[in-house]
Amino acid sequence: MKKINLLLALALATSIATAADIKGSGASFPYSVYQSWIKAYHTSTNVEVDYVKKGSSHGIADMKARAVDFAGTDAPLNPDQLNEAKLYQFPAVVGAIAISYNIPNIGELKLSREALAQIALGNVKYWDDKLITSTNKGVKLPHEKLTFVHRADGSGTTFNFTYYLSKISKEWRKDFGTKKSLNWPGDHHIGGKTNTGVAALVKQTPYSVGYIDYADAKNNGLSMATVENKEGEYIKPELKSFQAAAAKADLDPAKDFYAVIGDPVGKDAYPIVAATFILLPKEKPEIDKKVTAFYDYSFKNSANLASELGYVPLPDSLTDKIRKYWSEKGVM
């Protein structure tokens, strides 16, 4: 009995020693940068931050249930939703959604707005469809069935991708609109959980194409399409084109920073970008201060880590607004 009690005591001591000081869950889109920031913050402060990627819908649900100290979502809540759930909200970083593909022996691929919309609608059945070949002169695309890979879980990445589709396609806007999850049209598509799951499916499925956060696409060595933007320019997914897009973001603290920034204007702007957000409970200011301390440190000291992963750090003008927002809410 003494031995069992000793083991229980040791187990309890170990769990306490390794327990996180603050816990979060939610969006997988910013997971790579959050993990990088968490490691840097722990090295500097010895504070343990735990963030579990579950998808934006699960993060919002965890936050509403007060099961976590903070939550990540790529689908921002509007001021009415925030008031109802008694939450604060601020942006953390800007990232991009890559259109990744797996076509053996094919290098660069260009996709027009129309081609991308029709692929998502399930109307492009084969890779040698004229909508694709017309923008890829000299590329011998195969007569192979196209498999579209999407998120199977409630996802802020899906929210931002379908927002973009709604901007570029009247048909998509009318029939589906902007959603975190949906029954995808067509008869040749498969779904994966989290961005990592979609990346794995694209990697292992020949002749597939899917939407994934840039960091996961890059980490998995996936090919990424050059995509037509609002100005008719074909833009590669790379940091400078993400920065050009992020510069157009209108994130207003008076609206709790509520904004969706997909399909921005600008000749050099990559068209499928998204800000990702953090949710805090209004009734827990002391815990909130621990969360904002982490993000404040990351904004000041770890912006380079975001850039290295292909994310766009928030400009100083915006982080100053975020700090003022925190201060006004009493969470800094």
UniProtKB/TrEMBL annotation:
A GO cellular-component term linked to this record: ATP-binding cassette (ABC) transporter complex
Keywords (A to Z) from UniProt: Phosphate transport, Signal, Transport
SUPFAM superfamilies xref list: Periplasmic binding protein-like II (SSF53850)
Pfam families documented for this protein: PBP_like_2
InterPro entries the UniProt entry points to: ABC_phos-bd_PstS (IPR005673), PBP_domain (IPR024370), Phosphate-bind_PstS (IPR050962)
Transmembrane regions listed in the UniProt entry: none
Domain PBP, residue spans: 17-300
Metal-binding listed as a keyword: no
Keyword Repressor: no
Assembly and oligomerization: The complex is composed of two ATP-binding proteins (PstB), two transmembrane proteins (PstC and PstA) and a solute-binding protein (PstS).
Primary role: Part of the ABC transporter complex PstSACB involved in phosphate import.
Family (UniProt): Belongs to the PstS family.
The protein, known as: Phosphate-binding protein
Organism expressing this protein natively: Halarcobacter ebronensis
